[in-house]
Amino acid sequence: MNVEQINAEFDSLKSCNAAFAQQLHNFAVKLHDAAQSGDAQLVGLYNDLKSISQSYRAEQQQILVLLQTIHEGIQRHSHDPDHPHGNPSGGNYQNFAHSLHHSGFGQAIVRGIGFGIGDDLIRHIL
What we know:
By secondary structure, the protein is mostly helical. The protein contains 5 helices and no strands. Helix 1 runs antiparallel to helix 2 and helix 2 packs antiparallel against helix 3. The longest helix has 39 residues, at 40-78.
């Protein structure tokens, strides 16, 4: 496991996330300002954007929980002194990695499913 590469990818993900959040915020401000004119359609679009933003926030929070759970699992299984394989050099981490790889989440990652669910929708919009 290349920790530097994982950290670099995580930093890149955070940067992309921050850029997206800023773009979404800028669009929301523009739409909100336009909706202040009283146009019912713009008010509806602004409310739709708020709903989309809330869903996005919930998704981001769930991703954070998932990553924290994986991190805690790795920490627990690689440094548990009471477990016969619970040491940084060894087997328990491999058992955890094997279990993770064969979990539903692990198989979804292997197949590339999960993080690209919205790709078709985005391609349609663009």
